[in-house]
Hints:
This protein is of the alpha+beta class. The chain folds into 2 domains: 2-23 and 350-476, no CATH class; 84-198 and 239-330, Malate/L-lactate/L-sulpholactate dehydrogenase, NADPH binding domain (Ribosomal Protein S8, Chain: A, domain 1, 2-Layer Sandwich). It has 13 helices and 18 strands. The strands form 4 sheets. Strands 3-4-5-11-6-7-8 form a 7-stranded mixed sheet. Strands 13, 14, 15, 16, 17 and 18 form a 6-stranded mixed sheet that branches. Strand 3 (87-91) and strand 4 (95-99) form a beta hairpin. Helix 1 (2-11) packs parallel to helix 13 (409-429) and helix 12 (352-365) packs antiparallel against helix 13. The two termini are 20 Å apart. The relative contact order is 0.13.
Amino acid sequence: MVTRRWLSSVASAKSSGKGLVVPVAEVHRFIVDCLKAVGTCTDKACVQADVLVAADYRGHFSHGMNRLEMYVKDVKNGTCMPNAEPCVLNDTPSTAWVDGNNGLGAIVGNFCTHMSIQKAKQTGIGWVTAKCSNHYGIAAFYAEQALQEGMLGMTFTNTSPLMTPTHAKQAALGTNPLSLAAPGTGGDSIIIDMATTAVAVGKIEFQRRKKAPIPSGWALGPDGAPTTDAEVAFKTGLLMPLGGSETHSGYKGYCLGILVEVFSGILSGSAYGPNIRHWLRPTDKPADIGHSFVAINPNCFAPDFGCRMQDLITYLRNLKPQDPSKPVLVPGDPERKNMKLVDKQGGIQYHENQLKASLNDILQQWKFLSIAKTLCKRRREREEIKQEKMHYFHVSVWNFRPSAKLSGRHHYQNFCDFVIFSVFILVRSASVTSNDVAFLRLTMKDNRNEQSQYMEPMLPDQYSPHSSSPIKHCYIGSA
């Protein structure tokens, strides 16, 4: 069962002191299961999970599992059609205009990227625009696909209005990211992926979840003045352009945001600028996001593109640094470094506050109005289990209100997955050791004030954690 797989995986995750290391495969499975629980078919849920995991794998936590709540909410509310297929509205040898049919952004993005690459193989350049799409994750995920074919890849997308133009006190453009991937030699490359605002809104959200301040120059407060309060910045939703204030050339970031809007919203016929729905406010309006995807075959231009590109990459990396401990990097190097770290440590390292916040966000989308505080009680050894501490984790949930279309055993089971996830965090914080025994009991009260338990007991032989697991035995059910 889903619950058992999830518990087994997270229980074996490692604590690094700075966060929890979760296996990449488990992160992917969890995202897929969440999307499937709200009606997404398996293959499309896997594609969307690929993009979210790719972001966390590269160290861009603002666009990974941090974005799962938004996708679940849109699918559940019917503002995104998770199983829709994009279609071509107009096609030429080098260009195409696509209708995303309000499908998942990753599905639309992969469809258009593949089409642009195929056109570039035939004519040298492929340019595909799409309308009626949704948030498609990190832009580099699509630009990088061209590298596999020895091509340059570019992509642009508009987003919810969050950028405050220079001199303005209200948002009119999105973070409007752009990406360029260009191949060198020997598998090397430069990979640019950047917002045209001073920062992506997800980074402010991430700081907010860590309860940390943001640098001055990222966002404005409600009074139109720069703020360092992540909570205020997130709620106000007034990001500054790349560069910040006018004194620091913020108008250049503003102009880049317009450039992306032209390629994404205006050219594709999607919503644009202030007409795009606001993600930070409740709405039943479809996103109608616009994208552009470009593939360029360098062999149609001057020869030896890869060699010249590699020469520039090598020269930049070998520049004398201001600080010897901080060598000069090229775009894509920080991500490559993070991927190596993930591979070495056996998983993605998440801040515990992010995991807790992500769990809470998901729970809110499942119509659970409030979750009582989990009560952790430690008791000394019992006679029947010598030299082992007994840990009791009792999770109680009040005002349990499953929605009509999601009611039933399957609904309860998915809810239990999320509860188990939260208890895992508590197991970590309770310092359960390898010699301890943990008991977990889940109690739910529905809106008729009736207590129910929707979990079956898990016996030791059904739970096979890795040797490094912090829990020797874990029983789910009455203890």
